[in-house]
Structure formats: C-alpha cells, structure tokens
User: Fold these one by one.
Assistant:
Number 1:
Amino acid sequence: MRSSQLAQNIANEITLLVTSGELAIGEHLRTQHLADRFGVSRSPVREALQILADQDVLEQKENRGYFVKSSTGAIAEPISDEAQPFEVANDYQRLAEDWLTDRIAAEVTEQMLRERYDLTKAQLNDILMRAVREGWAERKQGYGWRFLPVAKTPEAFEQIYRFRMLIEPAAMLEPEFQLDRKIIDEQRRIQSRMLETDIERLPAERLLHNGALFHEELIKMSNNPFFHLSLVRVNRMRRLLEYRSRVDRSRTVRQCQEHLDILDLLERGEVVEASYAMRRHLGGALSKKSPIAWEWLSQAQEKIDA
C-alpha cells in the first residue's frame, strides 16, 4: 500500500534523526511537528511512530505520546549514494523530476496530477504540501497549482552561489552582528560529528541538509532578518537540483573542516577574517558543484530526447 510505504519512509527518516543525534534520547516526538517537517498529514506520521515503537526505537507512553527510547541501540549502517532517502523517494521525487526536466507545465490542476501519478486526493495533498514547504509550489487563487522557478539551469545555479557570495560574508559585517553561543556550539557539534562518523554513514540528503543549516544558522547572527529570509529562499531554490546530484563525500570532509575554521575565527573575534573565509568557502563550493550541475542537466535532457 502507498500509505504504508510512505509511513515506512518517514520511519526511516526519523531513525536517521535519532542515530545522527538530532533527536535526543528521551525527546518527545510531536505528531504535528513531524507532519509539518515532512510535509505530510498526521496519519502516516502516526503510523511511522507506531512502526518505530514496535521496533523498540521509540517508547509509547500512555496519554503522553512517543519518546526516543533510552535503550535503543540503533546504529545507522553506511548508506550508498544510490540509496534514496525520504526526500527523493516515492511520488514526490517523480513530480520534482518532471518539473526539473520540463515534462510538466508550470500551471497544473489537481485532477491532471492525480491522473498522471495515479494518486488519491490525500496522497497528492501530502506531496503538494511538501512542495510548498520546500518553496517550489503554490496554490493559485481560485483553482489549480503553480510551480515556482527553481535552479533548473546551470546559469541559475551559479547565480545563486554568486548571490550567496555577496550576502553571507556581508552579513558578518552588519553593525548588529553578534555571536550567539548556542548557534556556535550546536553547529560545532554537528560539523564535528559529521567528520567523525556521519559523512560516511548518512544519506546524501541529510548531508546537504546539514550543510545548508550551517549557513542559515550563521547568517541569523547578523540580526538582519532579510539576510536570513533571502538565504533560506535561495537554498530552497537550489535544493531540488542538488538532491539529484551525487554528493562528493571527500569534498564534504573539506567543507566541514572549512565550516569549523570559520567557527574558530568567529569565536576568536576575528569577524572580518571570518567574512573573507566564508567568501572563499562559497567560491570553492561553486567551482566544484557547477560542473556537477552541467553534467546532471545534460543527462536529464538525454533522457527526455530519448
């Protein structure tokens, strides 16, 4: 059943959050919060939580809900880049792929999508709500849906990185920029853990998420909300294309090390140096990722032509 597969995908994703330490032992898992996070209704989330309770990953407490079980010994196995995590599995991935490769129009009806992907109304709603959360779909006034511009071309992908090379270093030089110890400590923990274990065992989607989170959290310290909103927006626009690219895990090691170097500079109060380091970091990422974008788009076009 589709709903059971969706629930299993969500269960797998929650397990990754537990084994990566993003969900702490004893933490209470709220159904609505998880539904919002994964862009689905509460029904498959409840099913996923029950699956994990049956697997002894979570503990269900009467009238209180589900909690990460303190005795869980779940250790994530290394996951190949061919494995499809929740973000790109199932019909959500099919819709995203069709939009990226121009197989569907920018404006569509729910009836057309249901027929094309053989979905129920509830299943399509879950997928569209996820697309809304990811920033590439919106409901039209009155009737139908509209898919929004994303980084569908190498030119757009490079423009996003050049934009980031302007705003992220500049955000550190804002008059109201102030170090936030909680952000610094949490990002150091995430980046250090990635270097120690996570780069080899987490799926590509989770590595991409952690990388984007680092930049979005640091830019918050500018105390200028427009910097943060702009970065979140462009990160969403490039996300679909990066999900389809093969992650270079050796490059991810270097990125994590550069992230930690930037944190070191900030902690020492060397903000100007940190700003320069951020620009170099983003420039290096662009030089590595731009060819990947070209290669992927060429392969996608060959599939369409065939």
Number 2:
Amino acid sequence: MLTLHIADASPETAVLVDGAHIAAVGPYDELAAAHPGARVRRWPGILTPGLLNPYGPELLEQAYHPDPREADRLGSEPVFGARARALLDATPSARGASARRGVQRMLAHGTVAVAGELRGRAALDAVRRAGLALAGRPAALPGSPALSPVPLVLLPALGAGRPARFAVFDVPDRDALVQEGASTCVVTVVGGRMVYRRA
C-alpha cells in the first residue's frame, strides 16, 4: 500500500512510500493528485532525510542507557566512563539491553544511520534489527557523543528508488532544527516503517 508522508512546514517535500522504498518525492498536491488511493500521514514541522549519528561505538558499546526503572538512580541520559563499564558488565544481558535502549533513543532523535566501527554483537544486532544504516564516519567528528550531536549531520537528499529512510521534526525550518536539536523529532521512518512516533 502506498503511503504519502507530508509535513506541514515543508509541503514541497512530501514523500510517497511503497513498501521499503521511496516511490516519489515532490510537492504534496502533485503526489496526492497522482496517487489518490495513497494513505496520507500528516505531521507537524519539516520532513528531512534523517540524521547520521557519527558516534555509534561511543553510544552503543561504551555508554550505558538506563532502563526507565533505573531513572531514579541513574537518570535518563547515557552514562559514560567507568560507571558505564561496570553497568555493562553487571549481567550477561546488560550490553544487549543497553544497546537496544540506545537504538530506540537514537530513533527518537531522527537517527536513521550510525557511523563508526561497531565490534560487539549486542550493538550490531540492535542496529540491524532496527534497520539503521551503517555509514562511514565523517573525517571530523562534531562535538562529543550525544543523541543530538552538534552540529547535526543530515543524510543526502531523498529520491525515488532509495530506501524509505527519513524523519520529521516539529520545527518551522532547518535553521530551527539546527538551533533546537534532534529532540524535536516527531516520527522516524526506516525501511518504510514508522520505527518511532512521538506520543
């Protein structure tokens, strides 16, 4: 079934999805007229190609992502350093559970691809199950490891025939996205599926 994604602040960049791929990109009015049977998903903000998080190993193998039940003790942000290593080694399942939570948090920040060499099976499995793309690391890394790194790294433009991998951010334009960050994510689509949707 065809699905037409449109974001209110960027109607010129509507995306028609057919299965796991993009069928067309263009103005919403044109795509809607050409495909009247398509299911329409309307979002606030802007639709973008999605983000590359360049800190795959740092966030998914070296950081510990607390379970919500641990928030009173550990908070809700990734834990780094010696404390993270102790938490990751605490039980056999700790690394896998942390990596899965880390991937979910990345998806909630519009991440559709990660960079850096992942070596652990737990992180690789979490990334593959979510359908995140693995990409080359930029020559110069921005800032420090974060779910919303500064500066944000947008993937190349969307196009017909490419994998349906994009995100929508509740901001009026790209300048506002840069200023407000990736926590403004409303929905993340990977492989044509909504893998994150803000409640």
Number 3:
Amino acid sequence: MTVMDLSPRPVAAPLARMVAAQTSYELKAMLRNGEQLLLTLIIPVMLLTVFSLTSLLDLGEGARVDFLTPGVLALAVMSTAFTGQAIGTGFERRYGVLKRLGATPLPRSGLILAKTLTVVLVELLQAVVIIGVAFALGWNPSGHFAGAVLAVLLGTAAFSGFGLLMAGTLRAEATLAAANLVYLLLLVLGGVVFPLSKFPAAFAAVLELLPISALSGALRAVLADGVALPGAELAVLAVWAVAGLALAARFFRWE
C-alpha cells in the first residue's frame, strides 16, 4: 500500500511568476489611480490636442503637431518613469508596503524589475494613445524609429533613477510636492511645448542639458527631422541615466 506524503512544503514560486504577479498588481494600481491617469494620459493628450488645433503658441513653420508630438511623448515618459513612480514608491515606503514586501520571497531585484516592467507597459499604452491622436491631427513622422526607441529607453532609465532616488530619500509628502514641481518646471523649460529657441541663447544652452530637453530633442530629431541617431541628445540621456541609477542604488532607503 502506497502512503501519500501530504505534508506541506512551503516553497517560493519561481521568480518569473512572482515578478509577473507583482507587475500585474503594480499595473492595475497605477491604472486605477485617477491622479496617475491625469499625469500619464489626460494632460499629454490635452496639451497635444489644444496646442495643435489653436494658435496659442508660435511654433514657427510647419504643422504644429509635428513639433508637439515628440515633446508630448517625452512628457509622457517623464510623467510615468519619474513623477508617477516617485510619488507611488514614496507613499509605498511611507506606509510600510516596501518593508512588508521585503519579508516575502520576492527579492528586491524582482520588485525593481516588476516596477520597471510596469513603467514600460504604461509607456507603451501612452505611445499608442498619443500617436493615435497625433495621426488623427495630421502628424506626418519621418526617420528611423529605432533611434526613437533607444532615446525612450535611455530617458526611461534616467527618469526612473531619479524618481526612485527622490522616493527613497525624501518623506512621502516632500516627494509629492517636489515631483509635481519638477514636472511643471520641466514641462515649461524642457522644450516640450515651448521651443528652446524662444529662450535667451545662454539659458537655452543650459536647458538643452536637461533630460526632458534631451529626450524631446532626440525624438524631434528622429521623428521630425529624419536623423538616425541624435548623438548629442543620446549622450546627455546616457549620462543622466547612469547618474540617476547609481545614486538611487546608493542612497535608496527601503524603510
């Protein structure tokens, strides 16, 4: 007679399954958050639509939508990878969510991977919506989309690093205020809807070194001007990405 061994065997699920489950949770939480949707989708689409259909801004020659679409795509990346992630992670840290997750079998590397996958999935959704609206408004892109993808990946890494740095070092309330302030400042000063050529030359040269300026400039060079690889902008993004991720890894506090 065969005796079945029914004793419990508590074993952690495979890492891939844990990451997938955490990614699903993070994605649902982000998409159900009204403030997150306002930042990630509603504001970018409104900016693209309003400024494309009106003459509120002097954007020079050519269709307004051709100038605005790359900048709005860059703004969408910043809103998800930096602003949304900083605020969400900051409050998770405050309420002890990260501490509790640290007591589960999910390793910290798995949590960071899940958050990264969530950001990428939301960015894909943003890109589909914004590009669809842009085409409806008459957008006519040109160039090599591989360069645009590379710019978005570097921009995502840069903004994610500094978003996690802010969330892991400041109080949640301070993170909320600082992230929204940075969002507004970079929206105005980052070449998203206002051309940097409108600023004094010396000031514009400094603004070009901002990550949002580099990302919007790289996307504009690829999608509007047909440049294959905008080297200067990609180099700026790479420096920000390395610096942000290194600082986040060094100073991020989980509790």
